[in-house]
Amino acid sequence: MEQYSNLSSGNEETEAPDQPEIGQRPALPAMEALQQLGQTSMPGSESNIFCMTIIGQIEGHLILPPQNKTTKYEHIIPQLVAAEQNPRIEGLMILLNTVGGDVEAGLAIAEMIASMSKPTVTIVIGGGHSIGVPIAVSSTYSYIAESATMTIHPIRMNGLVIGVPQTFEYMEKMQERVVRFVVSHSRITEEQFKELMFKTGELNRDIGTAVGGADAVKYGLMDAVGGIGEALKQLNTIIETRRQQNGIAGIQQQAPYAPFSPSATGTPTETLSGELPQ
């Protein structure tokens, strides 16, 4: 028994069960980021553009049911700060496919994107509904897929509602915050946006408007109809313009893209360069 015990302990020492664990260790941080944040870790020097996804329902102060696919604003904001501080990141691309969610959380994300000093481009794929509209227009340049839609409707309130005039005044003030932000970060007028917001007969059992891709550009909500290819070209063009404005020559990682020519679906690139922060 003693000999068997020694043999058993010897096998434990000579076997290499740690071999698979060593191979798995480098993938653990990426897997944790994928599970917790819904995306991989921050790209390194091989890419100067950071891609971020905002999908599902935007979760605010209350935790949503586990079957809901959500985007937590406490996960998005630190990533925006990290992208702003990383000197290797020169631009940010945000992919949107959201049904909306918490108003204050959505406005917080939109304000953070709008306040970034680096160029940002948003793409609405599928849908950018409700509070997703301010996030979609908060970037330097915005795109929407031709088949995507954006639902514009008045804000709603869950939970205890007190039937007093102050409750309506509070909702009206919060709604004005959304209207002011969208109007100040897009080309749509306040009258046009409110007309779409309070329109009746468009949505079943609801007030508001479902705006398609081409109509969103026509109303001035979004800058152009396009997808990832157009967004990357536009973002690289803005980055190159900023380099020239700041006097940074540098070695480009890829050939520069030609500026977009004026078209009916978007604003020409040349008109955008004057709006970039110095």
From TrEMBL:
It comes from the Bacteria. GO terms for biological process: proteolysis. The keyword Hydrolase applies. SUPFAM superfamilies: ClpP/crotonase. Residues 1-23, 257-278 are annotated as: Disordered. Keywords: Hydrolase, Protease. One of its GO terms (molecular function) is serine-type endopeptidase activity. Residues 1-11, 262-272 have a biased composition (Polar residues). InterPro entries: ClpP, ClpP/crotonase-like_dom_sf, ClpP/TepA. The keyword Cell membrane does not apply. Belongs to the peptidase S14 family. This is ATP-dependent Clp protease proteolytic subunit.
